[in-house]
Amino acid sequence: MSSKRNLPPNHCVITYLFRNLSGLAVGNPSGDESKVGTNLEANHDVVVVGAGPAGLATAYYLRDLGLDIQVLEAGSDIGGRTLSRDLAGAPVNTGAMFIYRGTRAESLAAELGIRTAPFHPGTYGVHVDGVTSVASSTAEVVDALPLPDESKQALAEFMESVSREYNANTSEGAITENAAGLVNETVAERLAHLPGPARSVIETAVRGGAVGDATQLSAKYALRYLASYIVHEQDNRLYPVDGMQSLPRALAGRCGSTTTITTNARVSSVRERDGLFEVLADHGGESKVLTARHVVMAVPAPLLAGISVGLPDWKLEALKAAETPGSTTLTVAANVDGLEGIADWSFVSTVGKKFDAIINPLPGTVPPDGIVRFTCYGNSAGFLPGIENDEARINEWVEELLEVAPELRGRIAGAVAATWEHCFSVLSPKRNDALPELRRSIGNLHFAGDYTSETAGSHGAYEEGHRVAQLLRAELSVPA
Ligand SMILES: Cc1cc2nc3c(=O)[nH]c(=O)nc-3n(C[C@H](O)[C@H](O)[C@H](O)COP(=O)(O)OP(=O)(O)OC[C@H]3O[C@@H](n4cnc5c(N)ncnc54)[C@H](O)[C@@H]3O)c2cc1C
């Protein structure tokens, strides 16, 4: 197919590896069709800003059109918030953890041959005031907590009602149409009647599972990010055993030979001039100017206004509804050989700690080396720049984990911290209302990311990459 454009001829794509600024390959496990442009001063059919799930999905779903697509990534690696790292000999996820069933992330994973294991929780847990209670029944979990009787009773009833609501609004792990009305209610409304100690247990669990607080999270998405853990849902999460980043890496490897992905290329401005976009990027300390007929903005929502020059008021207003708070994670590898029960932990919310919850993505599984990896989600802690390399602060977090799980003392095999300025696009009723404006293109300037999707998460970002690719296909392709 050819493109409906009137641009100078495309430049040649002349090298064949993803390359970061220092010239190091950043990896293309699929081994096919990888490429990086060395000449950024060229014209393109499409420039995609950001090589996270949304940006890469956009390029992937356009791969058969022969379009000249340049994906510009500010960081030294692709995948955005799906970054995986090695910890004690296995991949761990420092950002996104799970592929949700029934979403585009699941279908893409299948299409791309990504290896997954089901998340099969058999327990739920709460830590409060020095007591960690993890059990298979909600009644047992609540019973062991050091809370006043009134709070225990209210908590047990609340969890029962959450389970009932979950069962009424989901089927085989997926949220059904029944839940549509819940999108306009927040969780806070459901918690208002709880006594303080019971409320803080649930508020912490909401934070741990969903980043936003109870005044932000819609009751619809509380089904996925709170209730599913309480009911031990068996059918809604998959764990990518080679790391969450394996998915964007596979996408990048299959984008097609006319797509170029350039890392260490930070876009500082995008502006329209005479029907073409001028994209200013800093690459290797030099300022480069690219032109493109179409630009796709696939960066976190809070960055958009600083990059796209002259966004209209309606877009700026909509972007205000797309809150994307920061978060810090700590993943700890520990040898659990001979320890009873701890490998069965799945989700433990932790009241009053630096982190709000601990997730073990492979509950019930002890690998041959005995090492289990627990990720602590510091969503209340927010963005903590520098913590990744700050041993003292990492040790403080590890110590807090050991207060929750004292049996792990002396068994820690390693820890990795990561911090995210923009973690997750909050699933709030107000963002839901703003979705049409968040999605709406401005001429040939398009918007794709977790923030333009109903569901947020990487699945939302992949879905939005697909949506924008369809839009571009209609614009740029003519039948052969
Ligand atoms: C701690 C944590 C836990 C999460 N858990 C899950 C989960 O379990 N499941 C799930 O599906 N999702 C989860 N998510 C959310 C998921 O990671 C995001 O929704 C998803 O990555 C969003 O994709 P995106 O492409 O919109 O943005 P991003 O992944 O943020 O990608 C945007 C890219 O743009 C680049 N960029 C930014 N500015 C510029 C610029 N000026 N020029 C060029 N490039 C730029 C960034 O470096 C980045 O690579 C989690 C996220 C975090 C942080």
TrEMBL record:
GO terms for molecular function: oxidoreductase activity. Residues 54-471 form the Amine oxidase domain. Pfam families: Amino_oxidase. It comes from the Bacteria. Gene3D superfamilies: FAD/NAD(P)-binding domain. PANTHER family: FLAVIN MONOAMINE OXIDASE (PTHR10742), LYSINE-SPECIFIC HISTONE DEMETHYLASE 2 (PTHR10742:SF410). This is FAD-dependent oxidoreductase.
